[in-house]
């Protein structure tokens, strides 16, 4: 099989009995498809917190790209810029920023989950924020929901989509027809949001 990762890297899986020539021939037969997918991937928007954070570096936050600024203050503040405390400067800056984003995610995503839970009358138990890179959200049989802080980099329409996705799992645990039927009732523009979501790569 042939897979193109979100980072536009190609992964080939083949049985041990396959020769190198057979693998190369297989890749050549799929060349047009590979080129098409890589071209699509290259157009996607990468959301991540850079390791190098300087004055003016833009940080994705709830769908906006906010330039970093510095002030003598205790905690970050958000306006036209993302203003960080001067005392944060140093080798641990990225870790401190991510820790703050995780705290903001706990407040924001818990609040939005409560809003939607009340609106659609689907109660949940708890919200926990994780550091997961690939799994944006999950919900178990105890109605406990987990989100990664990285959701905070997405536009609000997509964070709400993820929230409703997890609340739908309280009613239907699989991704079958019943699950998508419920989600379409809650999100009339579901297909538009799914297509928008595909435009992002989250790190």
Gist of the model:
This protein is an alpha/beta fold and 203 residues long. It has 6 helices and 11 strands. It is globular and about 60 Å long.
Spatial order of strands in the largest sheet = 4-5-7-6
Mean pLDDT: 90
Give the DSSP E fraction (strand runs of 2 or more residues).
15-25%
Q: What is the SS-derived class?
A: alpha/beta
- The coarse silhouette is globular
Radius of gyration in whole Å, from Cα? Answer: 20 Å
Series of H and E elements: EEHHEEEEEHEEEHHHE
> What kind of sheet is the major sheet?
4 strands, mixed
User: DSSP helix count?
Assistant: 6
State the helicity in percent bands: 40-55%
Distance between the termini: 25 Å
Number of strands: 11
Runs in which pLDDT lies below 50 for 5 or more consecutive residues are: none
| Oligomer class | single chain
List the helices and strands and how they pair.
Elements: E1 2-4, E2 10-12, H1 20-29, H2 31-42, E3 45-47, E4 58-61, E5 64-71, E6 77-78, E7 82-85, H3 93-120, E8 126-130, E9 137-139, E10 144-148, H4 156-171, H5 177-186, H6 190-197, E11 200-202
Parallel strand pairs: 3-11, 5-7, 8-10
Antiparallel strand pairs: 1-2, 4-5, 6-7, 9-10
Helix pairs in contact: 3-4, 4-5
How does this structure look, described?
The chain is α/β, with parallel strands linked by helices and 203 residues long. The protein is built from 6 helices and 11 strands. The strands form 4 sheets. Strands 4-5-7-6 form a 4-stranded mixed β-sheet, with no helix packed on it. α3 packs across α4 and α4 crosses α5 (177-186). The longest helix has 28 residues, at 93-120.
